[in-house]
Fold these 2 entries.
Entry 1:
Amino acid sequence: MNKDSSKNQITRNEALKRMGKYAALTAVGTFLILSPKKAHAQSVPLDPGGNPFE
Amino acid sequence: MKTILAPNYVHHTHDVVILWFQVSNKYLVLNDHIYTLLDCFLQSKDYSHFHQLINTGEPISGEVSGVLFSEIESLLTSVHSIDPEENKVSEVSVLDSEFPFISIFYNFNGVIIQVCYQSENEQRLIHPQFSYLEIEAPQINADCVFHISSSNHLLHLFKSNHFLESYSTQAYHLLQGKFAIELLCTLTQTKESDWLASFHASTISNNSEAVMLIGESGKGKSTLSAILMDYGFNLLTDDLSPMLAKTQQIHHFPSAISIKKNAFSLIDSLSERIKYRTFQSPNSHKGLLKYVTPVNSDIKPLPCSKIVLVNYEADSEASLDTLPIEEALNALIPDSWISPHPEHVRIFMDWLDSCSFYKLTYSETDAVISKFETLLRPAQ
């Protein structure tokens, strides 16, 4: 999650210099991009990559 | 107007704004400040118009408005991009009805389901969750027959002798999910398109309302479900909580609770009410799992307006706090299937209005029950 950097005592221009791709936007507040799963699924194994048939 | 980048749905709830983009089925959760800027961007004809629109209060320099303009454009472009579907297998399989499958019958509250497994490997994927419902082969035909086979590192699922889908063997959790939703449709006489969502959550009820437990795998949802069931609550469903679009109620799903090794001793400390069977994990490298039989005095669908993020933390003191909706959605949406049908998205957003969100941290049985009881009273 992008944190609300306005809580930090820095100006918007300083935030612009410090932050990444969406520097100016994250200086204004938080946002999240969320994608639901594309298919029904049961819990993914904790350490995926194992093959149940091997 | 940059209508091509506009969201298909905008919803204000719990002090945030949620935007939905149909082309990608992505949700963008914003605060009011960013939404105001984004709305100005969508209304603007070009950069200078945007600069003019956002300069209504404290002056914003051309340098800052220029960066904002390009960042909003980049953000909106990224939420329109379609992620590739992982583990998608297009291979079609044909059922070999002559093959000597392992045939097991289950009685789901009067509905007889037959599942035919090609070998013990396929059996291990489905059977442990429903083994408590196994019955002898009945004299009558089953209400529905599933076949699960495999070939060339692929798993194949059939329902009523019709091919449904193939999955890579490593993506067996997708076969389990598809089997679950097809079984649910059979048991409830519904179609897959009737469902609003299958949330990655366990749902606990007291016969009049339900509370959904969410959180990453390994954070104690299933263990907490067993503790609460032992105390007298109903387990409506574990791991997968299906919500019907028409009613927005969570439906019962009869799988046993799967408990991992690190919670075995806690499960053993519960009363005789809690019964379990032990099976090899679907992934044989991961040892044993215990499957706790659900205990329910009532399995009717119920409304749910409380969502609890579960957080097991060794040696922690139990605490129950309200949770910002952003954190709840961050745990719920990426881990769940939510119907991409626009009308279903609207219903999902409206349902969020009625919900309250909490975070429950626990390490010890009695203390967590006492906290949970402030949200839901046990059935009398």
Entry 2:
Amino acid sequence: MTFTFAATLAERGFDVELTIAEGETVALLGPNGAGKSTLLNLIAGLIRPDSGRAVLDDRVLFDVPADAQGARAASNAIRSRWMPPHARGVSLLAQDALLFPHLTVLDNVAFGPRSAGVHRAEADARAHGWLRRVDAAELSARKPGQLSGGQGQRIAVARALASDPGLLLLDEPLAALDVSVAPAIRRMLRDVLADRTAVIVTHDVLDAFTLADRVVVLEAGRIVDIGPTRQVLDRPSTQFAAGLAALNLLLGTASAYGIRTDAGSHVAVPVGQSLPEGARVGVAIRPALVSVSATEPFDPALNILPGVIIDLETRGDLIRVRTDHLAADVTPGVVADLDLSSGARVWLAFRPTDAVAYLL
Amino acid sequence: MSVRNRTNESSRNRRRSVGVLAIAAVAAVAAVALAACSSPTAEEPGATSASSTAASGLEGSITVFAAASLKSTFTELAAEFETANPDATIALNFAGSSDLVTQITEGAPVDVFASADEKNMAELTDGGLVDADAPVDFATNVLQIAVPPTNPAGIATFADLAKPEVKTVVCAPQVPCGSAAVTVEQATGVTLAPVSEESSVTDVLGKVTSGEADAGLVYVTDVIAAGDAVTGIPFPESSEAVNTYPIAVVKASKSADVAQAFVDYVSGDVGRYVLESAGFGKP
Amino acid sequence: MPGRRSSSYAGIPGWVVIVAVIGAAFVVLPLAAMILRVNWAEFIPLITSESSVAALLLSLRTSVAATALCIVLGIPMAVVLARAEFWGQKVLRSLVLLPLVLPPVVGGIALLYTFGRRGLLGQSFEMLGVTIAFSTTAVVLAQTFVALPFLVLSLEGALRTVGTRYEAVGATLGARPTTVLRRITMPLVLPALISGAVLSFARALGEFGATLTFAGSLQGVTRTLPLEIYLQRETDPDAAVALSLVLVIVAVVVVGLAHQAGEFTGFRRGASS
């Protein structure tokens, strides 16, 4: 079930090419409006691309030549191919379970098989099987209105899988759930997605680590980062990915003495790391390893950068001090002692050995 | 303190003005409704011509309720009457005779009633609203066959209407033109199988002018009033059902002299001339 | 935000209540006045006379047929209006809803020039040996003409409210458009379909002007209850009042059913958020 996809949609500035191997789960990350839902809807067939081509396991989902865009409708119809959503074998699981409210849980899950022409008894048997897989067998006679959010999402997963999709699309499946039930559903998803071709849109880095083999970072309708989950999140190349992984990211160019950041500062790199001069590099530092001071510290062993505080945010027993360059996690005592507030000029310092530098 | 007082004052004022507003609104609704209702029922042709010198001693305004079939003739007669008697004004109200009887029974202000049949007039005399000897017969009307100008079914006689392939429309027996049709049927022994029994002459004529029906039975005056839209075919058997129109002053009239003068005018020479040119017969 | 109506702040201004009471009295008083005029001693004989029963049965029969026709034609119309996007859609919607504001007589005249003997389609029907004028079919057509907008309107609104999200899910589960319509869309808007159908039935039952103009009036064939009332009024006001009351009772029952259907939204909960 290899999936290849390429599509443009001028109206939304969307231009994405993507290949997913059989059995692979890809996490789709990106800020709001980056085009994540557009990508899912294009794959599912709920919107049409201006141009592009998608093939799922030898079946052409759509094939719209680029030059057909401006051509007359008639010739467009001849040259374009378009498979309606119901024929694609692509299931979409949304943030809301969207269970059909008038059908019982069992009928919801049996909906896919029955739509494919499977006889009632057989469809019900399959539905029961899937309900057991998601630990919801005892809910089969209920109506969706009688389910909790977590239960609803379990049923929705069972329903999506019961239609035996070649490709499963998940649009923030855990976002609407209570934090107390999300872990159980995440575990369940990990089990059912293990050998499935799937795309999961998420804002939660934990989802990406738990469920995905690969991560795609989308920004403004384009892929800005793609690779194995750990690589993308431990060594981010975009501020967005760094933010997801809760890392500071400094982008710059390797020089003879270390790294010259795009903001003009000089940063020393850990001893033993050799970076070819002139290469684009990233430096990742955990906020907890960054210290804050009101006056410039005199310590040649530290990397010291100036910053202006943007805001302060309480995170557990620490406070994150966000500046225009770096973020630092400090104790409330430090904030009080230094009298930190938005707009204040501060100095941020970190040890070269605490940073990770890498080629982009 | 003063601020607080002012606040109370203004809120009280507001409440009062809202109450006034509500009453005004209801009154306005009622006024609009009344105006809308009264205009189609009371027509006042030439009502403004009452300024010239009086030729006769008649003075006052009267309301005349007349059968719908009298609309054109009575509108004309009322205008002529007002020209002859500049100080008299006539308001006219046309509707089905039984509707008018209902309105009069319910207390509608009326001075003269002209019915399309004796039965409805009898209801008023029986009810004591009109003196038993007051009604005067002033016109008659007989049935005629109305056909589309092309006469697609080739109707020539009353018996033709009973042919199965002919679509005939009549008035329902409950209304005067329908009961007249039944009388003719009984007298001639010809039984009609109408495709529809309409509740008014207008509806019968509508079916004929639109070509839906091949023939309709209506009054000769209706055929004349319809002009070129239909062709009238007289038939001798119509004399079996002559409809007589009575007119009378209503007891409660406040301008009995004007009312009586109008009744005399209608049943006199001018009235007869106008009525005859519209197709009505002598009583 | 469903299910949050108890003990909420109402804050209705006093004058609004007063005007509302006046408005309610305006509607209820005439009905009460009519009921006061009913000749109860003769009531049963009046409404069970041959012509009354024939008119009532004809009315029920034609209204049921018209409602069925409204459902058959109205569902696709509502679906197209609510789901499709095409040029002239707004104009089309206005035209479809026109019978709502059109005087029924105008509707009757329009139907006459369409299905009448010399009408646009009537001539073709005539050649096929089908005569519509003066038949019960004509009554059903007239009633459908005036009742159809009620069904289309309430169904289209419900379709827009429900949205397309469930339909999209159904499609991605492999259901063809027809399956989605039958197994998802229609069940979701069932309450609106029921109340729309009941309203259409009520409108068909009360239809007078278009029937009078287009279908004619013959006992047992085209003379429905409203036409019978109109005719009885000429000679027997008691019968007219008695039959009016029957019509009012049927209408009240029908409106009550429509309200029930509107309340029947137990499974809507899942559709929120």
